[in-house]
Amino acid sequence: MGWLIEISADDQELLGRAGAWEHCPTLQDCSPLKLSEIARSHGLDFATALLYNRVLRHPAHGAFFRRVRNGEAPRAVEPRLVGPPLFIVSTKTRARTGRGWPPLSSQ
Fold first, then answer.
1. Is 85 inside a domain boundary?
2. Phi/psi at 106 (nearest 5 deg)?
3. Measured between alpha carbons, how far is 10 from 101 in angstroms, rounded to an integer?
4. I need a surface site. Which of 7, 50, 74, 87 has the fewest CB within 10 A?
């Protein structure tokens, strides 16, 4: 973990303790309620380090952080149409008929 060199010795120790802690072994185990209990009993820094460790251990989230840490370019993704279905249908109707927007209600 060469990237840890940029982190202070105290933070490295904190991250090491969080990584070795047996409670909340997965990200799914770290509910907001559980994390607040951990913060009260072990401190906010420890709870934050624990959550960070569990996010890194998660397959999908960890892969993202590894790509960022290694300076990899983002993967190209297919563009997705984002918008409410009514807008999409209305746009198709308008394009097909050549008329303006359909009325919002039948009243």
1. no
2. -85, -5
3. 62
4. 74
Arithmetic mean of pLDDT, 44-68:
88
Residue 99 lies in a domain: no
Of residues 35 and 78, more confidently modeled: 35
Domains held by the chain: number? 1
Question: Does the pTM of the predicted model rise above 0.85?
Answer: no
Query: In terms of residues, how long is the chain?
Result: 107
3-state secondary structure (DSSP) of residue 77? coil
**16 falls within a domain:** yes
| Angstrom distance (rounded) from CA 55 to CA 27 | 6
Contacts of 92 (CB under 8 A, 6+ apart): none
What is the C-alpha to C-alpha distance for residues 71 and 23, in angstroms, rounded to an integer? 32
22's CB contacts (< 8 A; 6+ apart) are none
